[in-house]
Amino acid sequence: MLQTKRLFDDAPYDCTFNANVIEVGEDYIVLDKTLFYPLSGNQNYDTGEINGIAVTSVSVEEEQNESNKLSFTSPIKHYVDTSGFEVGQQVIASINEENRLRTMRLHSASHVVEYFIRQMSSFLSVEGSFVNIEKDRTDYKMSESITAELLASLEEQVNNFISQENEIIFMTEDGLRYWQCRDIKMLCCGTHVSNTKEIGKVKLSRKNKGKGINRIEITLMD
C-alpha cells in the first residue's frame, strides 16, 4: 500500500523538502514524504509548489485501523498539473511559509480558547471547528449564550495566557497525538507554534447559530 511520511508532524516550521513521486493520478500526485498538510482534522490544507507547479489542494484518505485510530501513513494527494510528473521522479517542493505560520498561530490559539470555555459552567460540548489562514471558528454548545461581557472577559483571559510565553509540545500516547501546553492537553493532529508568544494578540467574536450553539471566531491582531 502506498504511504506518505508526514514531515510536518516533526518539522512544522520547515517549508522546503525533497521527495519522490510514488503515484501519478489524473489530477494529483502522491509523494513518499511531504510537508504539505492535507485537509484533515478540521484544518485547511497547505498551498505551495512542486517543481515550480502550483499545488491547488491537498487531501488524505483518513483511514482507520482495527483499533479505530487514524493512520499517520496514509497516502497524501497533491493536486497539480500532472503532465510533468512520473513515478520515481525526484522533486523539490515548497509550501507557503506565511500561510503555514498564520494557520499554526490560529490553531494554537483555538486550543487556549477551548480550554477557558470548558471552564464555564454553561459549557456542554464542542460541536465542530475549522481553521485556515484567516480565522479559527469553533461551535460550542452552551446551556446559556456567551454574553458580550463574558466574551470580553474570555478574550482578556486568553490574551493573558498567550502573553505568558507558555511552551507548546506534542506527544503520542497509545497511537494518539496530543497537543499540550502547561496543564492543557487535547487530542490534535494539526500544525502549531512551539510557544504561545508566537501567537500574538487575538480578537474573539461570537455568532449565535441557534439551538444553544455559540460560534466563536478567532482572528489575529497582526
Automatic annotation (TrEMBL):
GO terms for biological process: alanyl-tRNA aminoacylation. Its cofactor is Zn(2+). Pfam families: tRNA-synt_2c, tRNA_SAD. InterPro entries: Ala-tRNA-synth_IIc_N, Alanyl-tRNA_Editing_Enzymes, Thr/Ala-tRNA-synth_IIc_edit, Transl_B-barrel_sf, tRNA_SAD. GO terms for molecular function: alanine-tRNA ligase activity; ATP binding; metal ion binding. Keywords: Aminoacyl-tRNA synthetase, Ligase, Metal-binding, Zinc. Residues 176-217 form the Threonyl/alanyl tRNA synthetase SAD domain. This is Alanyl-tRNA synthetase. It comes from Xenorhabdus japonica. The lineage of its organism: Bacteria, Pseudomonadati, Pseudomonadota, Gammaproteobacteria, Enterobacterales.
